[in-house]
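DM from R.C. (forwarded with permission)

"hey, sorry to bug you on a friday — could you get me a structure for this? deadline for the figure draft is monday and I only need the backbone to look sensible"
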Amino acid sequence: MNDLLYNKKVICPVCNREIEVTKVKTKGCRVKSRDTDLCVYYEGINVLFYDVWVCEHCGYAALQDKFESIFTRDIPVIREKISSHWTRRSFSGERDVERALEAFKLALLNLQVRKAKSSEMAKVCLRIAWLYRAKEDKKEIDFLTFAAESYNDAYQKERFPLDKLDEYTCMYIIAELYRRIGKLNESVLWFSRIVSSSGARSNPKLIDMARDQYQLAKDQLAANDGTVEA
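My reply, with the result:
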């Protein structure tokens, strides 16, 4: 196994059995660059590949920072809808993009059967889109679309912060995802709300990014014969 990885034993909160999960050592988390939708690229190893833990015994899967905090009320539905159909297999050790996609889609399925909040669904869908981006697969757009609509729903219905996501960063993500999937009118609208917001100015880096992408979205809209107000 790659020397930037290590295994850790945890107890699955759904079936109460011990499993081994694989984590990335701190020295393996060196950021190389970021895309404008906040997708992170790392030096040497793709940390995203290991962000979902999967129980080999029952099929419960979740982002690692949420794995042990499942609500007790959700356990029976996981056992009924997932565990009863589960074919035992391990997800520990090194992962390629295909194995990572399988783990993330299991996490998404777990959220769906639990009827989880839109913000939780959006976070996983966005990361699935990033994995498809790593493959240069057109399915990226499908999951960017799911993420955009789910973040939009969360913005309308949930209280901030959404886990660690503040209101203005959420607005930025919605705007940039709409730009990437070609919904340019919606993108321009969301970006304009950020750059005109006094509250967003407490985050100068976010404002600068929003202004850059706002101009790009307006340019793209104009190139498509759209009309943009000055």
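R.C.: lifesaver. The first strand starts at residue 5 and ends at 11.
me: no worries. Strands lie at 5-11, 18-24, 31-34, 40-42, 52-54, 61-63.
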